[in-house]
């Protein structure tokens, strides 16, 4: 029988940059992002990995971050507030919220460091948009209404988003389809007011909504993928909620063996 120390050492280590905006803010979207972050950490642990929280001390890609990344088996980039539009060559509009330079600095350092280290990398919501910007793409700062609802306006009980639910078609044999057991489509929990505009160089689109919104991206040359939706949404059935995290942990275990 393995000891707890042996079991811990056999678990892939998944780096996750922490959220830096405090939940005491009056903006419920920030509190929600922080709770969703906690969900992701729990799901990574339940999926068989060891979550490694990366804080603002890991912003020097040549120093402590590089050393920490060498000990990881993968990186997960979670949701949160809006990226500073100056990162993709634009000035911010009034629609942008929770633009946090320290968060941008941390997330960009982790994302770039992960790519440089060749680590399997998965982006969720903001993480999806972040990866697109890292690859040289741009974002829609505030989406116009369309035939698909992407952001429910009525908060659910307890403050969490009621979500906008819709289906997306997944490209066959894509990395994201693999996270869902090679399914052709998935019903998603959507809650975003920004989206990918110009796709970054080297990325391919592997899922779109009916209105053309880019819902998933991947790098065909390495294991880098991202989704605009929230697989961690608590309203999803427990097994369906855990499945993509288990699949990502297995990717990390296979591509970056433990030990």
UniProtKB/TrEMBL annotation:
Ubl conjugation is among the record's keywords: no
Comp. bias intervals (Polar residues): 1-11
Matches recorded under InterPro entries: Class_I_gatase-like, Peptidase_C26, PuuD-like
Highest taxon in the source lineage: Bacteria
Disordered: region residues: 1-26
Single GO molecular function: hydrolase activity
Keywords: Hydrolase
Protein name: Gamma-glutamyl-gamma-aminobutyrate hydrolase family protein
């Amino acid at each position: 029988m393995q000891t707890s120390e042996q079991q811990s050492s056999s678990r892939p280590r998944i780096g996750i940059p922490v959220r830096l905006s405090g939940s005491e803010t009056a903006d419920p979207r920030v509190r929600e992002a922080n709770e969703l972050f906690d969900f992701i950490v729990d799901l990574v642990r339940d999926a068989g990995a060891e979550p490694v929280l990366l804080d603002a001390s890991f912003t020097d890609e040549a120093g402590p971050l590089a050393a920490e990344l060498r000990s990881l088996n993968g990186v997960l980039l979670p949701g949160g507030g809006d990226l500073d539009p100056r990162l993709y060559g634009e000035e911010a509009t009034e629609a942008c919220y929770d633009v946090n330079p320290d968060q941008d600095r941390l997330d960009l350092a982790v994302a770039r460091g992960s790519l440089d280290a060749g680590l399997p990398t998965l982006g969720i919501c903001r993480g999806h948009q972040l990866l697109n910007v890292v690859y040289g793409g741009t974002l829609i700062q505030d989406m116009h209404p369309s035939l698909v609802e992407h952001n429910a306006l009525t908060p659910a009980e307890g403050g969490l988003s009621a979500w906008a639910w819709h289906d997306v078609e997944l490209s066959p044999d894509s990395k994201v389809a693999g996270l869902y057991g090679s399914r052709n489509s998935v019903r998603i929990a959507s809650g975003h007011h920004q989206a990918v505009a110009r796709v970054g160089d080297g990325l391919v689109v592997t899922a779109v909504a009916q209105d053309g919104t880019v819902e998933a991206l991947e790098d065909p040359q390495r294991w880098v993928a991202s989704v605009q939706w929230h697989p961690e949404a608590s309203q999803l059935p427990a097994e369906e909620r855990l499945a993509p995290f288990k699949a990502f942990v297995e990717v990390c275990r296979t591509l970056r063996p433990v030990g």
